[in-house]
């Protein structure tokens, strides 16, 4: 949309496509996370009792999402996309895919 309005660089499209691979890997990693043990002793929280293993299960794949998101946020902030910024999401997406592959086996 920024490119169509004339305020962005066309390489933002490539940046978004490269970051999309990392987002996809994060979504797959999140979908196959281990479900919490609902029989464990619950923890008291302001929102009510919560299983003790739920917090660890809920934050899984947030790390890989942030890795893919950082270069994507820097592109519009800078107004153009330097080559280093195009290489960063490619590397981060590769790391996200590898993390997903090796944690999915467990």
Describe this structure in words.
The protein has about 110 residues and is mostly helical. Helices cover about 65% and strands about 10% of the residues. A two-stranded antiparallel ribbon has the order 1-2. The longest helix has 22 residues, at about 85-105.
What is the mean pLDDT?
77
- Output the helix-strand order: HHEEHHH
Helix content: 55-70%
For the secondary structure, the number of strands is 2
Class computed from helices, strands and strand pairing: mainly alpha
Terminal Cα span = 40 Å
Computed CA radius of gyration, to the nearest angstrom: 18 Å
Strand ordering within the main sheet: 1-2
The tally of helices reads 5
Mass-distribution shape: elongated
Oligomer: single chain
Unreliable stretches? none
**Strand percentage:** 5-15%
Query: How many strands, which pairing sense, and closed or not: the largest β-sheet?
Result: 2 strands, antiparallel
Structure in a nutshell:
With 106 residues, the chain is mostly helical. Helices cover 65% and strands 8% of the residues.
Question: What attributes does this structure have?
Answer:
106 residues; mainly alpha; two-stranded antiparallel sheet; 5 helices
């Amino acid at each position: 949309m920024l490119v169509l309005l004339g305020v962005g660089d066309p390489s933002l499209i490539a940046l978004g496509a490269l970051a999309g691979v990392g987002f996809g890997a994060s979504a797959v990693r999140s979908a196959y996370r281990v479900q919490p043990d609902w029989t464990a002793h619950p923890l008291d929280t302001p929102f009510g009792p919560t299983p003790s293993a739920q917090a660890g299960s809920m934050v899984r794949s947030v790390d890989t999402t942030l890795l893919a998101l950082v270069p994507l946020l820097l592109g519009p902030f800078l107004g153009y996309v330097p080559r280093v910024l195009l290489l960063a999401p490619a590397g981060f997406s590769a790391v996200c895919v590898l993390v997903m592959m090796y944690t999915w086996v467990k």
